Automatic annotation (TrEMBL):
Domain of life: Eukaryota
GO molecular function terms listed in the Swiss-Prot or TrEMBL record: ubiquitin binding
Protein name per its UniProtKB record: Phospholipase A-2-activating protein
WD repeat start and end residues: 155-195, 267-280
Length: 327
């Protein structure tokens, strides 16, 4: 199997701050990718925002183009999905126990999804079997599979909050819980298939590498690489406090280029220790970036090879590879 090495320009590159996005009045609790290098953010100020370049050019600065209103509690999670109709929809989860659905043209929601009985803190979207499938996780200890905006299956089993959810291809859902476990469920019936145990504290985040491997991060300050069958393949240590979020940053594709089978990637994590850390799957931590905010809440990979970090100071920091020769 092909492997990447430090001689690969993508693997060898380091990252620096490209832009700081402002506009929120409180903690940015969640960030997500939008097409063409755009960024979505959700905040304790009960607002969600969309930042985009003025045109499809990764070198243009991002500008705020929409402010989404509706939540009466903390806007705690956000994601974007291309629906089966080909339109993009934006989903915002709130501590008022609701999920709000938007398009980018309107600041008010198209729909409100109500089923959870407590704070909703995580979302993931994917088209599966020609159905629009949204998965949500909540402090009510459940995850819900929504199909075409209807609550279809409620996933029971976690004994504390469900902190993160993720799709593995179009076949499975992963849920991460404050009960220190990760659970694997079938789509669409919600059958429990496996329970992953390996962390010693709350599991806060998930990142899927491919159909066979994924990552988790935890309040135990570790990142674990898993096989989809439950084997622990690697453990990454270095953070000094809770790890709240992680993502996979992949080498950007050229227009029209098909993803290669072994597309290079890096792992990015953010922590209560006030650092962003970048990891190589083989050699561990390759870069440590301090940010002067009390908490780094969230990180998301962007489709242009950059990544965004949401922090307690109300900012979104956008990072990009540092070009050789630049300070």
């Amino acid at each position: 199997m092909a492997t990447t090495t430090k001689s690969d320009p993508f693997i060898a590159s380091e990252y620096g701050i490209l832009q700081v996005l402002t506009g929120h009045e409180a903690d940015v609790r969640a960030v997500s990718s939008y097409p063409d290098g755009g960024v979505l953010s959700a905040s304790r100020d009960k607002m969600a925002k969309l930042f985009k370049p003025p045109k499809s050019d990764p070198h243009c600065e991002l500008e705020e183009v929409q402010n989404f209103i509706g939540p009466t509690g903390v806007a705690a999670a956000i994601c974007c999905g291309k629906t089966k109709s080909g339109d993009y929809e934006i989903y915002v989860a709130s501590h008022d126990s609701n999920i709000f659905v938007y398009n980018i043209l309107e600041s008010k929601p198209l729909a409100t999804l109500a089923k959870h009985s407590s704070e909703v803190c995580t979302l993931a979207f994917r088209v599966c079997n020609d159905q629009d499938v949204l998965v949500s996780g909540s402090w009510d200890q459940t995850a819900i599979i929504w199909i075409n905006r209807e609550p279809t299956v409620t996933l029971y089993g976690h004994i504390h909050a469900v902190w993160d959810v993720a799709f593995v291809a179009r076949s499975f859902i992963l849920t991460a819980g404050a009960d220190k476990t990760i659970r694997k469920w079938n789509i669409p019936d919600g059958q429990l298939l496996n329970i992953f145990e390996g962390h010693t504290d709350c599991v806060r985040g998930l990142a899927v590498i491919n159909g066979q491997q994924f990552l988790s991060c935890s309040n135990d300050a570790t990142i674990i690489m898993w096989s989809i069958n439950g084997d622990i393949l690697n453990k990454f240590e270095g953070h000094e406090n809770f790890i709240y979020s992680l993502c996979i940053v992949r080498q950007p594709l050229k227009p029209g280029e098909e993803p290669p089978k072994n597309r290079p990637y890096k792992i990015v994590s953010v922590s209560e220790d006030k650092t962003v850390r970048i990891w190589d799957k083989d050699s561990g931590c390759v870069q440590k970036i301090p940010i002067q905010a009390s908490t780094l809440w969230a990180v998301a990979a962007l489709d242009n090879g950059n990544f965004a970090v949401g922090t307690s100071d109300g900012f979104v920091y956008v990072f990009a590879p540092i070009k050789p020769g630049n300070d």
